[in-house]
Write a structure and sequence with these properties.
The chain is α/β, with parallel strands linked by helices. A hairpin with a 2-residue loop joins strand 5 and strand 6. The protein starts with 7 loop residues before the first strand and ends in a 12-residue tail after the last helix. The structure holds guanosine-5'-monophosphate. The site of guanosine-5'-monophosphate (5GP) has 15 residues, from strand 5, strand 6 and helix 4.
C-alpha cells in the first residue's frame, strides 16, 4: 500500500505561458508522470506520437469519447483534445504523481469530477505570462505556427486568462528558472498534505 495517494497536478495557461516546458521538466526529472493527451490536431515538426500527444484521426478520437475512455475532452483552437483515464488513474492509485497540461474547459471538467480519487488528488495551477506584450512576443518567437494561427492563439489566450481565478494557485511567469523553482515547490508542499497520507492515521 502506498504511503500516500498521488497528486494530479493540473496546469493551464495560454500558449506561450511556458506551462508545457514546466510540466515536461517535472516529468524529465522524474518528479511526476506526464499525462500524454490525445488530439486531432496534426503533429508539428519534431513532435512524436505517444510522447507529445497521441495523434488521432477524428474517427479514432470519437470512438474513445463513445467508449468513455476520457477523463475530460474539449475543443481547443478548432481541434479536439482529451486526457485518457488510463494516463492518470492507475498512477494516482499507486501513490505516483501525475502532471497534466490542459485548457480551461478541461480543467473545469476535472474539477467537476465526482470520483473521490480525483477529488483528493487534484491541485490546479494557472500559469500567466507577465504581460500581454510578452505573451505576443513569445508566441511570435516560436516560429512553429503561421501568423493566422498565432493571431487566433493570442485572442484565445486573452479569453483563457480571464479564468485564472478559478484555480487554487496562480504562477505569474518570470524567468524559466524562477518559474520552475516555484512550480516544484508547489508539488513538494502538496506532498505534505495530511489528507493524502493514507494509512498513517497514528
Ligand atoms: P497545443 O496544440 O499548443 O499543443 O495545445 C493547445 C492547447 O490544448 C493548450 O492550451 C493545451 O493545454 C491544451 N490541451 C492539451 N492537451 C489537452 C487535453 O488533453 N485536454 C484539454 N482540455 N486541453 C488540452
Amino acid at each position: 500500500m502506498p504511503s500516500r495517494t498521488g497528486i494530479l497536478l493540473l496546469v493551464s495557461g495560454p500558449s506561450g505561458s511556458g506551462k508545457t516546458t514546466l510540466c515536461r521538466r517535472l516529468a524529465d526529472e522524474q518528479e511526476a508522470f506526464y499525462s500524454t493527451s490525445c488530439t486531432t490536431r496534426p503533429a508539428r515538426a519534431g513532435e512524436v506520437h505517444g510522447h507529445d500527444y497521441f495523434f488521432l484521426t477524428r474517427d479514432e478520437f470519437d470512438a474513445k469519447v463513445a467508449a468513455g475512455d476520457f477523463l475530460e475532452h474539449a475543443t481547443v483552437h478548432g481541434n479536439s483534445y482529451g486526457t485518457l483515464k488510463s494516463e492518470v488513474l492507475q498512477h494516482i492509485a499507486r501513490g505516483e504523481d501525475v502532471v497534466m497540461d490542459i485548457d480551461v474547459q478541461g480543467a473545469a471538467q476535472v474539477r467537476a469530477c465526482t470520483d473521490p480519487q480525483i477529488r483528493i488528488a487534484l491541485v490546479d495551477l494557472f500559469v500567466m505570462p507577465p504581460t500581454n506584450e510578452e505573451l505576443a512576443a513569445r508566441l511570435t518567437g516560436r516560429k512553429t505556427d503561421s501568423p493566422e494561427v498565432i493571431a487566433l492563439r493570442l485572442k484565445n489566450a486573452i479569453e483563457e486568462m480571464a479564468h485564472w481565478h478559478e484555480y487554487q494557485y496562480r504562477l505569474l511567469s518570470a524567468t524559466r528558472e524562477e518559474d520552475y523553482t516555484r512550480f516544484k515547490a508547489l508539488l513538494l508542499a502538496e506532498r505534505l498534505r495530511v489528507a493524502r497520507l493514507v494509512g498513517s492515521n497514528h
